[in-house]
Amino acid sequence: MLRFRRARGVERLQLRWLVLVAVFLAKDGLVLASLALCLALLPLATGAAILRYRLYDLDRIISRTLAYGLLTILLGLAYAAVVLGLGGLLPDSSSLAVAAATLAVAAIFQPVRRRVQALVDRRFNRRRHDAARTIADFSARLRSQVDLGTLTGELLTVVDQTMQPTKTSLWLKP
Questions:
Q1: 112: which residues sit within 8 A by CB, 6+ positions away?
Q2: What backbone torsions phi and psi does residue 25 show, to the nearest 5 degrees?
Q3: Percentage helix, strand, coil for the chain under 3-state DSSP, each rounded to 5
Q4: Is the pTM value of this prediction over 0.70?
Q5: Given this model, what pLDDT does residue 7 score?
Q6: In the Cβ-directed half-sphere of 100, how many Cα atoms lie within 13 Å?
Q7: Which of 81, 97, 98 is nearest to 89 (CA)?
Q8: How many CA atoms lie within 13 Å of 90's alpha carbon, on the beta-carbon side?
Q9: Residue 168 CB: number of other CB atoms within 10 A?
Q10: pLDDT tens, residue by residue, 46-85
Q11: CA 57 to chain centroid
Q12: Mind listing the pLDDT tens digit for each residue in 147-158?
């Protein structure tokens, strides 16, 4: 500031440019500091929302991540096996092996995905797997059950086991 006050002419213009750049850098430094603070607080806020307020159902995310990761590996291996297997049988310039492998992997995607998801659920999400099994067992018994009192008791038991509400009741229209 002292040098700027003493300067005249070209030197003063040069110092004016330096001051202008310094002001912009200071302003940008404050913006960058506040941005860095916001970025540092974002994971903390996300963690609090997830852990305290159950923002995301992490069990479901982990289950899907494992299932799709395993599915990607299995389908990639199947694709490579079909391409290499048919590639050895067909001429080198034929793209039929790639087309057949693509169609084969597309055809088996949904069945393999269902099996892999069931395997992951059975291993890591026992409550959901057990609930699905309980409902399937109940629906099989439902076909042969004719006594309304027994059916009511079984239905309330199944709802209590699968949904785990605080209270269960059943209203039947007379």
A1: 71, 74, 75
A2: -65, -40
A3: 85, 0, 15
A4: no
A5: 83
A6: 14
A7: 97
A8: 15
A9: 13
A10: 777 767 766 666 677 777 888 899 999 999 999 888 888 8
A11: 9
A12: 778 888 888 888
